[in-house]
Design brief:
The chain is 36% helix and 24% strand. By secondary structure, it is an alpha/beta fold. It has one domain: 3-Layer(aba) Sandwich (Rossmann fold), CATH 3.40.50. The strands form two sheets. Strands 6-7-8-3-9-10 form a six-stranded mixed sheet, with helices on both faces. A four-stranded antiparallel sheet has the order 2-1-4-5, covered by helices on one side. It is globular. The protein binds adenosine-5'-triphosphate.
């Protein structure tokens, strides 16, 4: 059953993120070549592809965490120069890493406060209030803010990491396999949370995922990475009719049929 995905009314298609001719490689081995990709304001876009095709490399190249050899990356209408994204740009996006990447020696609330302390000069009581707000926004209890990451379940770790990704009230959210390791009910709950946040905060969401239920229930558009580029992009129906061995197996294979019906 698809989740409620109604969009904010002002979601005019507008490119918020774009790569043009992007080429990324390591030690003479090209992973992505001449890759064109765009993300429109307000959408939930999923990057899918076989293991090792370069989905994480693409997001890391966009975030400026790995260098690219050719092409351009632009975010919010501004090209990211050779020295990587500006601080102003970094403040406009939040990242949820695959395993949460919480600081194990800090409480949940302290983790959420890290970006605020790094980027904003706010009085301490405001930082604490904002951290609590973010924690509640992702469906955790305010009292969970006092817990250490080691005391959290897998689902709570994802939510705590999401609260930290939302710390600076970003426009754009990157999620790396957000539902991996969650049971189906927790995964569905997390998917609904992402939709709700997109709708209430007006976020744009880019996620790397292998979760066919997520693709079915909340994603607006899908970009398939294969053969070092975006092989095809579009909605689920486009994927279901695209003639390529991996795309066919992924979107029309047994597991896909179970999810897509
Ligand atoms: N820093 C690096 N140095 C050298 N090779 C790298 C580096 N980062 C990634 N690679 C290589 O790039 C290729 C793509 O990796 P990437 O992690 O993007 O795959 P992926 O599509 O995200 O896979 P998965 O679905 O399994 O997470 C892999 O062959 C990987 O070994």
């Amino acid at each position: 059953m698809p989740l409620s995905t109604s969009k904010a009314p002002d979601a005019e298609p507008e490119t918020i993120l774009q790569t043009s001719g992007l080429t990324v490689g390591f030690g003479g081995r090209t992973i992505l070549e001449n890759l064109d990709f765009e993300v429109r304001r307000g959408e939930i876009l999923a990057i899918v592809g076989a293991s090792g095709t370069g989905k994480s490399v693409l997001t890391r190249a966009i975030l400026g965490l790995v260098p690219h050899q050719a092409g351009t990356v632009s975010a919010f209408g501004e090209e990211i120069g050779p020295s990587g994204p500006s601080v102003e740009m970094e403040k406009r996006w939040g990242v949820l890493f695959q395993f949460g990447a919480l600081f194990s020696a800090l409480t949940v609330a302290e983790n959420v406060a890290v970006p605020m302390r790094e980027f904003l000069k706010l009085p301490e009581d405001l930082v604490q209030d904002l951290s609590r707000l973010r924690i509640e926004m992702v469906g955790l209890k305010a009292s969970d803010g006092d817990k250490m990451p080691s005391e959290l379940s897998g689902g709570m770790i994802k939510r705590a990491a999401l609260a930290r990704a939302l710390a600076l009230d970003p426009d754009l959210l990157f999620l790396d396999e957000p539902t991996s390791g969650l049971d189906p009910i927790s995964a569905a709950g997390f998917d609904q949370l992402i939709v709700d946040l997109r709708n209430t905060l007006g976020l744009t969401v880019v996620m790397v995922t292998h979760d066919v239920d997520t693709l079915h229930s909340i994603v607006d558009r899908i970009a398939v990475i294969a053969e070092k580029r975006v092989l095809v992009e579009g909605d689920l129906n486009t994927m279901k009719t695209f003639d390529h061995p991996w795309v066919k197996e992924y979107f029309q294979g047994e597991r896909a049929r179970a999810a897509f019906g």
